[in-house]
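re: ur question from yesterday

yeah so i grabbed the chain u mentioned. its 112 aa long if i counted rite. heres the sequnce exactly as i have it in my notes:
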Amino acid sequence: MEIFLHLLPFVASLAILAFFVHAIFWAMTFTVDEAYLRVRFYGYTARKVALSDIEWAAQDWAFWNEHWTNTFSMDRIVLIRRRTGLFKNFHISPPSPQEFLGELGGRGVTIR
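ran it thru and got these structure tokens back, copy pasting raw so excuse formatting
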């Protein structure tokens, strides 16, 4: 057993890496409620943007932005343009961008 103790930091590092990869690619979800657009990991809110702070939303891409994406596919990227903040562009990648934009439009957000 003592022979494998030197491998413990390596195994722990791999476990932490596996947790983060799973959290990003499978556990990240995007929801819209009465007042906020929320980015969640395992049900806990990691980032929220007030719907009143959203200037417009589109299925587009911008260079200078805040990324909350979990895909490599450009077809799933939704650009949220905020009115305030250092990074006004906010990227998310919901599973169905058109349905998500429809839900945002139903909450009063301008869709481009």
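noticed a couple things. The two ends are 61 Å apart (CA to CA). also The helical segments are 8-25, 97-106.
anyway ttyl
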